[in-house]
Amino acid sequence: MDNSICQVYEDEIQSLEEEIKLLAEKYEDSQQESTFFSDELLMSTKSFQREFQGGSKGHESPSDLKAQLENLETDLSFLMKFTGIQFTSHSKKTVEQTRNRTVRKHRLSGNCHSLSFQLEFQLLEMQKKENVSAVITDLSIIMESGEDSDVSKFVSSTEEHRNLLTFFRSLSSYAEWYEHRRCTFLHFK
Amino acid sequence: GVFAHLEMLEARAHEAAVKQEETERQEEKLAGLKARVQELRRQRDELRAKVDLQQKGQLGQEGVVSDPAQPSARAVLERKIKSLKAMLQVFYLTGISGKLTKRGVCFCISTAYEGIYLDSYYLDLLTKSEVQIHRHSIPIFIPLEQIAKKYLQTDIRRFLSVLSDHLNAYVGRRYQADQLQERFSDQIEGILQRNSLCNLLVFNYDVSSKSKTFPFNARLLYGDLCCSLPTQATVSCAPDAPASLAEMAAAHSDLFRRVALHKAFGSFSSAEESVD
Fold first, then answer.
1. Which residue is closest to A58 within chain B, CA to CA?
2. Which sequence ranges form a coiled-coil region, renumbered to this chain (chain B) (predicted)?
């Protein structure tokens, strides 16, 4: 008799926890900048876990938080300088969320050296045992220099294969080369 | 008689005590669960209210219902930290991210194949005097030393770019081979032979033509380590096979060089369906 009551409570606890998780997600979504995807994705290589976790979760003092913020800002500004990729805006919307699956639509804009881009993509994340897998299920890219036929060919092929990573890697190389060429021309003017 | 009786009474009392303990424990557990349920319900209702207000646009950025005019300094910090972490995670999707360390930089090279994110690799660099690789998780069959010798000192960006190309091509090749084994195992005869670098694949597969199956052998060599398509594809059938099959083998060889392996096999199945 008692066991069944326990079970009823435990079931309710589980469903409440799920509901809370969903509501919290929904709330976070509507805030302007929100967490992208779970930290577990970055934790998938165990030996470098600590290196990449931006501090422990929980209650740190304001001075700890400030230090953490400064570290993150330094890291981010280093990455932007190093890769030449600057993001100017980023928003996301949860399209589907179940226990193990989350689908979010992202809007990202920025530039790489002097080339601007605008992206919209759909990211599917699935919880699998210890890892979180990430898959781009839809991708659309708008490039400022879209009139260039080479660029538009590259863009449509990238979109077709949903190669977000290839897009950025190629963009980075292309933008650097483009920048060199531009500087060279200016030099000769 | 008396002692036996006493023993029996003791035993009964003990039983009763154990039962009592058990009941108390159960009740405690129930009370605990009940309290948790109530707490969760409270949290859930609070969140619901927050989300409702948010939908109606009445919450400020920090979403503190009690005092909308004054988000705590702590909440502001936490929000900023969250958004920066999100930005860092976007960099993960671009293929190169990282974190500054006391003595240099720790880069993370992520890989993906056709939108599916696969393994990520770490490279811990020391940048005090000359650039040195302190630690890394690059597989041993990737020519890291060669690439480092060529680019690490003169052009770190190029070094990472070339390394990223190698790693992405490798995971792409591996993914195709894995997909072939997983999804087309019924067409593969025996084992799919491959090396660690996944740039040499040898396998036997069945081709059906006019309700008969013929064994084909394929040997794929990926000569360009930065490419996930083979540079050489040798497809052969039995020497006594009809001429039409030799033609098919040539067509397959061409296909393997142009199209991802698992996609090529996918097209065989659909082609057969339409023919039969």
1. B78
2. 6-57
**Distance in angstroms (rounded) separating the CA atoms of residues B91 and A165:** 10
A-chain residues within 8 Å CB-CB of B100? 71, 74-75, 78
What are the distances in angstroms from CA B53 to CA A16, A17, A49, A81, B64?
A: 20, 21, 38, 40, 11
> Average pLDDT over chain A, rounded to whole?
79
Q: Six-digit token pair at B111?
A: 């890989």
CB B33 within 8 A of CB A9: yes
Distance (Å, rounded) from C-alpha A132 to C-alpha B246?
45
Check if A173 contacts B (Cβ < 8 Å): yes
Angle at A142 between CA B111 and CA A92, to 5 degrees: 65
Q: How many helices (H) and strands (E) does chain A have?
A: 5, 4
Q: Does B248 or B61 have the greater pLDDT score?
A: B248
pTM above 0.90, yes or no: no
Reported ipTM: the value is 0.72
Number of residues assigned to chain B: 276
**Which residues in chain A come in under a pLDDT of 50?**
32-56
Mean per-residue pLDDT, B22-47: 90
Q: For residues B138 and B167, is the Cβ–Cβ distance under 8 A? A: yes
